[in-house]
Amino acid sequence: MTSIIEQFEDSQNTRQSAQQRNRLSSANIGMTHSGFVNVRLEEEKPIFNKQRIDFTPPEKINHLAVCNNQLCMSLGRDTLLRIDLAKPDQPNQIELGRKDDSKVYRLFLDPTGSHLLISLSTSECLYLNRNTQKVRSLSRWKGHLIESIGWNKLLGNETSTGPILVGTSQGIIFEAEISANEGSLFNNNPDQFFRQVHSLEEDGRPAPVCCLEVERGLENKYFIIATTRKRLFQFVGKVAEGSEQQGFSSIFNQNQDLLPSFQEFPADMGYSEITFYTSKLRTSPKAFAWMMGNGVLYGQLDYVRPDSLLSDVQVWEYTPDIDINLRKPISIVLTQFHFLLLLSDRVKAICTLNGQVVYEDVFPDKFGMLKKMIKDPVGGLVWIYTERAVFRYHIQREARDVWQMYMSMNKFDLAKEYCRDRPECMDMVLAKEAEHCFENKRFLESAKCYALTQNYFEEIALKFIEAKQEEALKEFLQKKLNNLKQTERTQITLLVTWLTELYLNRLGQLESDGNSIIFQETRDEFRHFLSSSKHKECLFNNRSTIYDLLASHGNVDDMVYFSVVMQDYERVISHYCQHDDYSAALEVLSKHCDQKLFYKFSPVLMQHIPKKVVDAWIQMGKRLDPKKLIPALMNYSQMGSTQQISETIRYMEFCVYELSVTEEAIHNYLLSLYAKYKSDSLLLYLEQAGTHASEIHYDLKYALRLCAEHGYLRACVLVYRIMELYEEAVDLALQVDVDLAKSCADLPEDDEELRKKLWLKIARHVVQEEKDVKKAMNCLSSCNLLKIEDILPFFPDFVTIDHFKEAICSSLEEYNQHIEELKQEMEEATESAKRIREDIQEMRNKYGVVDSQEKCAACDFPLLNRPFYLFLCGHMFHYDCLFQEVTPHLSTFKQNRLEELQKKLAATTQSSKSRHRPVPKDEGDTSSLEKGNAGTSREQINSQTRSAPHTAILESEKRESAAARRETKRGTRGRVYFMFV
User: Where are the CHCR repeats (predicted)?
Assistant: First the structure.
């Protein structure tokens, strides 16, 4: 046998008849002004592409069935050919083994491609499973000529069909089940059961069951469709959940008392055929087409309807070239948008959308008469066969031209759905829809569609202008604006300006008509347009133009709103100020917290609403620079009301006390305000500001001049004290209060001479001005620097001594006490000098011995290499080592004192080396010491005594070093002798 299936001819017959395409030209759909170039696209492949299978059958083909890529073919009288289309080069030929004259009447293949039923002309039925080579007879089926099978799509599998329906030529519907299992020894029949469930009639007589279809709907509802030559029956019923395996008899029992629902047509061509279309995304068919005597009944399947499955039903009547008596249609196949009719020599494709014949393919006579057309519900391919050839149709891009049909039917939503990936077609649909809406006075919808097309902008705009449809024009412009790219700045500017003008015209018209509701809605829409973030850049760049348009229409409110949107708060505030709405202006200022605007508008606002302005300033806190607000404050503090002045002082106090501002200008200004308007706070402020110039933030000279101008003497005294001009402070204080002068006189604590001078001023004032001797005596007790003899010259020549007798006596007693103290100090000094001379004499007679191998107790290096110290306890240290060891343990004062002594020793050593004088004798030292101590106080003697050991040690060090060198030269045994002084 030759190779078959899937090996196609290299040169395929792709010719098509003139009726294959009935495309609509652009002229027919009114697209003369589309922005797309109206040219013919590249030649597209046909939707229905016929391919002949490279297969020459050894015998005539009687029947063919295909499903789920499994193809079964009946050849001759007794041969069956099975082919797995996935493995077309491995055909399987089976002999039926019939010895009688029976012929194959029909072939039925289930949806899985596993179960093949062979109906014989002798009213017998055979069964063949895909996994076996053995053809088995169905004994229970004998005596019935099988016309149709209703397969069970839910329960069918490779080994069992599940409950199925069987239609016979006598109008009987049986329920059966076939199993591929071999069964037991006594029962090896594949048919599990075979029972009658219903019978169909036409005109009172049994009618052959031409087709059967079983579908499951929602909630366990089942639909059964059965057709005869003229009738289409529907059975609807429920099967209890879990009892699906029991079959469909319950459905027919539910309809037993009622006549089944059916549709009948008068014409009879001896048979009928029904076909279904199932999309790839669904398991149940969505459409049907029934070929019968009067034509083709087609429509949709609606599983929600309670009693009938069929909806949107239409009848396509046969064309004149189809005669049910002479040239009957043989088969029908349904696709998504077409149904194909098989005639004896040709195939016709009719569009289900408009009923037009869109394709016709004539077969050459050499292949013989066309016998049947089958569609693989799983693979979607359409198969046609003659006695000597097999053809296959590929259906591709069936929805390619559907958009044109929907468009011609004014079903624009569906048209757009099927051309969304083809912009040139989408543009044509939108233009057609826009024209359709315009003609039907649906201008807003028309504008929306026109905005999405590539038609000339000017023509569309003029079209709406001529029709006086401003709302539609506005809608068109808005949609166009939304579709523009951000780079198309010129177009955006044009549309934004035009739309603004349209909105303003509309608002003016509505306002004059008094329609407040529509006016408010339009205003809200306009403001939404002005605040659109998408066009914010364009509005900002052209804001002057928008302002001019708003001003020309007198639309002040929207101009203010637009200014806020553009963050042009200066314009908003200026507008409010010009209309004396200062509170609104301040509200804008406070809301947006722009410091520059505060500085600019505060002078105006402060004049009218000072309290609110100051509250706003205080709320801004440190974000405002008070120094920049001074011009506004000074302007209205000089010419303003009491409220403005008090608010100015309140803000200045907030800056000083709350914000701790240290700017000199702020403090000077607050001082001036206190001096002019709030004198009771002036002294308090000066006292709190500080007592030292480093703490003061105002100008002292300015403060002094200001206080002097307004006669605030106490404040002047306080400023003089801070300036440390104590004489001026005392002089001025004496004009106010003696106690105030006394407080000033005690301030120069480090300068006793100045203090005495100041107290003398106070005493003179008390004696000469107030002539109060008692108060003058109090001055003596207040200041220990003054004596009675200091103030006596201030008294007049003739004054009673009784007033200051006690003061004179007290002064004399003090002098006597002081003389006694001096005598005691002299005696102590003499005794101290005596003890020192004795200590020195005793020290001269002490000595110590240092070996040449002795080492420093700190650094462990030879001791005699450098100057060193020898203590009575026996410890020996280099001079520098001892200095380093002792220094860290001394206080800061003692460290400084040690450095001073070190410098003095260094200077003494240098002087001693330069003179080369011999060591003085003991008596000379003693006499010099006595001479030096003569006439000195006890403190001086003690001070010299404290420094003497260091000097003595240094001199001893020199003498002993020289002696050591001499002893070494004389040949001593490495020892050095030292005298302690």
Answer: 621-775
As a whole number of angstroms, the distance between CA 305 and CA 312 comes to 12
Task: Name the pLDDT band for 815 (thresholds 50, 70, 90).
Answer: low
What DSSP designation does 59 have?
S
Tell how far CA 222 is from the center of its chain: 53
CA pair distance 223, 215, nearest whole angstrom: 5
Q: Are 289 and 296 in contact (CB under 8 A)?
A: yes
| CA separation for the pair 318, 910 (Å, rounded) | 146
pLDDT, residue 173, reads 95
Separation CA 804–CA 322 (nearest Å): 159
- Res 6 pLDDT > 70: no
Residues in the chain: 981
Single out the residue of 350, 344, 349 nearest to residue 363, CA to CA.
344
Partners of 980 in the beta sheet?
846
Count of Cβ atoms closer than 10 Å to residue 887 Cβ: 12
The residues spanned by each domain of the chain are: 48-399, 400-483, 724-799, 822-980
For 21, the 3-state DSSP assignment is coil
- Residue 61 pLDDT level (bands cut at 50, 70, 90): very high
What are the contacts of 733-738 at 24+ separation with CB within 8 A? 734/761, 734/762, 734/765, 734/769, 738/762, 738/765, 738/766, 738/770, 738/775
pLDDT at 167: 96
Which CATH number describes the domain made up of 48-399? Answer: 2.130.10.10
User: Mind listing the pLDDT tens digit for each residue in 655-673?
Assistant: 999 998 888 999 999 999 9
Q: Are 83 and 7 in contact (CB under 8 A)?
A: no
Residue type, 744: C
Paired with 129 in beta bridges are: 115
Which tens digits make up the pLDDT trace of 156-172? 898 999 999 999 999 99
What is the biggest distance separating any 2 CA atoms in the chain, rounded to whole angstroms?
A: 183
CB-CB contact of 970 with 925 (8 Å): no
Q: What is the dihedral of CA 595, 601, 607, 613, to 10 degrees?
A: -30
The DSSP annotation for 808-849 comes to: HHHHHHHHHHHHHHHHHHHHHHHHHHHHHHHHHHHHHTEEEE
Q: What is the pLDDT of residues 79-115, one digit of tens each?
A: 999 999 888 888 899 998 877 788 999 999 999 999 9
How far is it, in rounded angstroms, from Cα 209 to Cα 226?
7
- Closest residue by Cα to residue 481 from 437, 536, 519: 536
What is the average per-residue pLDDT within 688-716? 88
Type of residue found at 515: N
Bigger pLDDT: 232 vs 217: 232
Residues 102 and 105: their CA atoms lie apart, in Å, by 9
Encode pLDDT of 302-342 as tens digits: 988 877 889 999 999 999 989 888 889 999 999 999 999 99
**What are all long-range contacts of 580-588, with beta carbons under 8 Å and residues at least 24 apart?**
580/608, 582/608, 582/609, 583/609, 583/612, 586/612, 586/613, 586/616, 588/564
Predicted pLDDT of residue 565: 85
Asked if 212 and 146 touch (Cβ cutoff 8 Å), the reply is no
pLDDT digits (tens, 9 = 90+) for 291-310: 999 999 999 999 888 778 89
- To the nearest 10 degrees (0 to 180), the angle between helices 938-969 and 892-915 is 50
Burial string for 259-298 (b: 16+ CB within 10 Å, else e) reads ebebbebeebbebbbbbbbbeeeeeebebbbbbbbbbbbb
Rg (CA), the chain: 64
Give me the pLDDT at residue 807, please: 58
**SS3 string of 584-621?**
HHHHHHHHHCCHHHHHHHHHHHHHHCHHHHHHHHHHHH
- Compute the distance between CA of residue 107 and CA of residue 64 in angstroms, rounded to an integer: 7
* pLDDT tier for residue 801 given thresholds of 50, 70 and 90: low
